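Would you mind writing out a protein's amino acid sequence and the numbers that encode its backbone to help me picture the idea?
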Amino acid sequence: MHLSLPMPIGYTPCGRCINRPNQGVAVIHDTSNAHKIYHTLGPLKREIYGGGGIAPDYYMPYERLNDLESKLVTQSVFFDFAVKYTAYHKDLKPDFMVTDAMLDEFKSAIKEKKIEFTEASFDSSKNYIKQEIEREVKGKLGGLNADYEVRVKNDVQIQKAITLLEKVQTTQDLFTEIKNK
């Protein structure tokens, strides 16, 4: 496998390049058949393959947006809804919860944008829609910090990292935990 991506070159804190430069384009190689194996200096002697980028110790795929969710994002429906909603609901508290009434108003906003959807597609995206309404509205009420609080709470990768870190006391414990998965 050989994949060229226009991305910046990155380095670990100790100065090791995490990807291989090729005339300004990072090249990622399949390291499953790498020609050289290195080992970390710690007691675990973790394997590191040479010749390509650094593979994550724990891989989690990104969640993909479905068709409706993509349209809602690209057409700024969440942003526009949050602006209007906070303008008309001046008594809204920063700790509000997304209600069925809010979801009904959001459906109207989708229809105003002339985005076609079915009840089934809306229902299958309801959790994502609630999260994005909460993020945008709280961002309007409390600024960037409030927006990030919602993002962190709903980010499955961050939550997995927190779960892993809560189980361990040291970096070595973390690597042992990951290795045993």
Summary: Residues 126-154 form the longest helix (29 residues). The chain has a mean pLDDT of 83. The beta strands are 2-5, 20-22, 25-29, 37-39, 47-49.
